[in-house]
Design a protein that fits this description.
Blueprint: E1 6-11, H1 17-29, E2 38-45, H2 63-75, E3 80-82, H3 97-105, E4 111-115, H4 118-128, E5 132-136, H5 145-152, E6 158-160, H6 169-174, E7 181-184, H7 196-209, H8 224-227, H9 236-246, E8 250-252, H10 260-271, H11 277-289
Helix pairs in contact: 1-11, 10-11
Length: about 290
C-alpha cells in the first residue's frame, strides 16, 4: 500500500456529532487505530437551514448548541463543511436570519462551504471572504468532461467530481490538477441515474418549505452492504491500490442521513485498520448511544 496521504471527508457533522467528536479525539490521541496515511480532512453536514441541499435535514438546533459544536470541532481540529447546496435559492433567501447566524458562528477561519448556488456562494464570499474555504459540489451534476475540467480551473479549494466518473479511469488519468479533485466513494445512487437532478430539486424545495416530498427512490434507503455492490463504489483497496497511485488524495464519504448503524460501518470500513474493527465499532456505537 502507498504511504501517500489519504484524506477523508466524513459525513455527519451534526447528525452524528458525538461520534465525530470522539473519533477526532481518538485520531489525536491514538492514531495507531487508523489506516496508513489517513487524515480527517473535514466533516460535512448542516443543521436545519433553508440553504441546505443534497439531502433533507430537519435537525433543528439552538444557537447554544451551535456554539458547542463549533468549540468541540475546533478542539479536535476538524473543519465543518456546510452542505449549503440548495439549487433553488433566490436573492432574498441569502438574507435568511438563521443561515446568517450559522455563518457568523462558524466564521473562525477553520470551516468550509460546499457550493452549488452562485447566488449564495457570491453572498458568502463577499461577506466572509477567506473566513471559509469553498468547495464545488457534486450536486451541480457535471456529466460533461469539459464542464468538469472547467470547474477544476475555478477558484475552489476542491471540486467533488460527479460520481459517474468514479470508474472512468481513462478520463481520471487525463485530469491535470488531481490535487483539487475529491472523489465520492460510496454513493447510494446508481450510476447514470436520470432522476438525480430531479431528486436534488425535490430536496431543495422541501428544505425551503420545511415540508415532505412525494419524490421516492429506493436507492436512497440502501444499507452500506448493498451500496458496496454498486458499480461506482470505491473500496478501501481501490483507494490505496488504484486512486492514490494515480495522484488522488481526497475522498468523500456519503452518509449524513443514513442510520447510526450504517454510519459506524462506513467510518470503520474506510478509516480503521482491520484488526481494530470490532473495538472501534463498539467505541463509536457507545459514543452515539451516550448522546441519546
Amino acid at each position: 500500500m502507498s504511504k501517500s496521504e489519504v484524506i477523508f471527508h466524513l459525513p455527519g457533522a451534526f447528525n452524528f456529532f458525538p461520534g465525530i467528536r470522539d473519533l477526532g479525539l481518538l485520531y489525536q490521541q491514538q492514531p495507531h487505530y487508523f489506516r496508513e496515511g489517513v487524515k480527517i480532512g473535514s466533516v460535512h453536514g448542516s443543521p436545519f437551514c433553508i440553504w441546505n441541499g443534497g439531502r433533507f435535514t430537519n435537525n433543528f438546533m439552538t444557537k447554544q448548541h451551535l456554539e458547542v459544536v463549533c468549540k468541540e470541532m475546533e478542539r479536535v481540529n476538524i473543519p465543518i463543511r456546510f452542505t449549503f447546496t440548495n439549487c433553488l435559492l433566490e436573492e432574498h433567501h441569502v438574507y435568511d436570519a438563521w443561515g446568517n447566524t450559522i455563518l457568523k458562528e462558524f466564521s473562525n477561519g477553520c470551516n468550509e462551504i460546499l457550493c452549488n448556488s452562485e447566488i449564495l456562494e457570491n453572498y458568502i464570499r463577499n461577506k466572509y471572504g477567506d473566513k471559509y474555504q469553498y468547495i464545488s459540489s457534486t450536486t451541480k451534476r457535471f456529466t460533461s468532461k469539459n464542464k468538469q475540467n472547467e470547474e477544476l480551473k475555478k477558484d475552489y479549494s476542491l471540486v467533488v467530481l460527479d460520481y459517474d466518473f468514479n470508474k472512468n479511469f481513462k478520463y481520471l488519468e487525463t485530469i491535470e490538477n488531481k490535487e483539487k479533485c475529491e472523489i465520492l466513494c460510496n454513493p447510494v445512487c446508481k450510476p447514470k441515474c436520470s432522476r438525480r437532478l430531479e431528486h436534488y430539486k425535490a430536496v431543495s424545495y422541501c428544505q425551503l418549505e420545511n415540508t415532505t416530498s412525494d419524490f421516492s427512490c429506493e436507492e436512497c434507503t440502501k444499507p452500506f452492504w448493498q451500496v458496496q455492490q454498486n458499480k461506482n463504489f470505491i473500496s478501501i483497496d481501490d483507494i490505496y491500490n488504484i486512486y492514490v497511485p494515480m495522484g488522488f488524495s481526497n475522498f468523500k464519504l456519503e452518509g449524513r442521513n443514513t442510520s447510526a448503524f450504517d454510519w459506524v460501518e462506513i467510518i470503520v470500513y474506510y478509516l480503521i485498520k482491520d484488526e481494530y474493527h470490532l473495538e472501534i465499532r463498539d467505541f463509536l456505537q457507545k459514543a452515539l448511544l451516550g448522546s441519546e
